[in-house]
Design a protein that fits this description.
Layout lengths: L1 H34 L15 H9 L19 E2 L8 E2 L20
Antiparallel strand pairs: 1-2
The structure holds iron/sulfur cluster.
Iron/sulfur cluster (SF4) binds next to loops.
Length: 110
């Protein structure tokens, strides 16, 4: 009985929401894939940077794990993703960049 209610609910959902419902389901699938992606533990080795690049990184308050939950490097237009489990890079801030990092230059990716 309850599985019939679930099937009916899903059918009604698509019937009533059409393309918007399909888009929502695609978002759920893509979102769960992204959540399952392995991330680097830290991206803080700046030993190869010159003093000016280190200073810029510090002056813009770059941090590996930000408290700005809605403004991570992953969602920034300047972020360039690395391989799975590896640090990414940034078009502005030199050195390894964590997908969950942040700095004061954050700009929403469009
Ligand atoms: S500009 Fe800042 S927030 Fe954006 S990717 Fe670079 S380090 Fe991250």
């Amino acid at each position: 009985m309850s599985s019939n209610l679930i099937k009916l609910g899903r059918r009604e959902f698509f019937k009533n929401t059409g393309a918007l419902g399909a888009l929502g389901m695609a978002t759920v699938v893509l979102g769960s894939t992204a959540c399952g992606k392995k991330e680097p533990s830290k991206c803080d080795d700046v030993s190869s940077l010159n003093p000016a690049d280190k200073k810029l990184r510090e002056s813009q308050d770059y941090e590996d794990h930000t408290s700005h939950a809605d403004q991570t490097c992953l969602g920034c237009t300047q972020y360039v993703a690395g391989a799975e489990g590896q640090c990414g890079t940034c078009k502005v801030i030199k050195g390894p960049i964590h997908p969950k990092g942040w700095c004061k230059l954050w700009v929403k990716k469009t």
